[in-house]
Amino acid sequence: MAQLRTLESRSAEWVAKHLVMAGRLIDFDPETAFQHALAASRRGGRIGAVREAVGMTAYAAGRYDDALREFRTFRRITGSSIHLPHMADCERGLGRPEKALELARSEERNMLDAAGKVELAIVASGARSDLGDHAGAVEELEIPQLDINRAFSFSPRLFEAYADALSAAGRSSEAAKWYRQIGVAESALGVDEVEEPDILDLGWDEEEERRAEEERRSRVAGARAEHGAGYAEEDAEAKEDAESNDEEAEHVEGLADDEIGVTERDAFEADDEAAEEGESDAGADDDARDTGSEHGA
């Protein structure tokens, strides 16, 4: 490391060995890595790379006070704001989301590269969520680097953060689309991708998505129309049944009328017969009286 050349040879060797161990252990044993970085700082405390190592190992170990102090020292020594996202996240870790947002709004953010701006946006989104502002968390991630059609080394992480924010804001259907795109971006980048690649087309076809949505709506409309036709057929059948019932009722009523008519005719005929019998009996009585009169005479 070029910066170690400013040190006396034995000190430079001492510092280098501890930095190597810190780098090896940071992902597996961050606390031990932090102790190695601290040991390196005892002889190389004025070197920016050493203070950076202390800050990064402290950050990995969750020692946010120590990390924040070391990142500030690194910035003062080098004039670089490359660790602004880490500093903002340390503020979050210390329970100060408002401070994190202040750093995210500072002019220093303009000194970051694309990857740094993405990391700072993710931290700012997390700070918004800490404050219960889920809609604001979504807005923090809607930056130029958020492009569903392109993939960079930071894209999977950005897509995941955006999907999580959308989900927390209750926008599940949109979140599902971005969750799917994480895998697409990772496949496009490759597992062993180290350096930021050229722009990659992720194959997201918005026109195809629109056609799929139209097809879905068409199916829904067709299903509704089919149900509507079924209801119309049922109504027609019910109407036919009603008309059939009316005709049957009229037929039965006609039969009843005919039966009543026959009954009335039978009654009239019976009355006529009774009347004729009465007239016949009356005539017989008259004949009997006339015969009696003749005999009396």
From TrEMBL:
<feature type="compositionally biased region" description="Basic and acidic residues">
    <location>
        <begin position="209"/>
        <end position="218"/>
    </location>
</feature>
<feature type="compositionally biased region" description="Acidic residues">
    <location>
        <begin position="269"/>
        <end position="288"/>
    </location>
</feature>
<protein>
    <recommendedName>
        <fullName>TPR-repeat-containing protein</fullName>
    </recommendedName>
</protein>
<feature type="compositionally biased region" description="Acidic residues">
    <location>
        <begin position="232"/>
        <end position="261"/>
    </location>
</feature>
<dbReference type="InterPro" id="IPR011990">
    <property type="entry name" value="TPR-like_helical_dom_sf"/>
</dbReference>
<feature type="compositionally biased region" description="Low complexity">
    <location>
        <begin position="220"/>
        <end position="231"/>
    </location>
</feature>
<feature type="region of interest" description="Disordered">
    <location>
        <begin position="200"/>
        <end position="297"/>
    </location>
</feature>
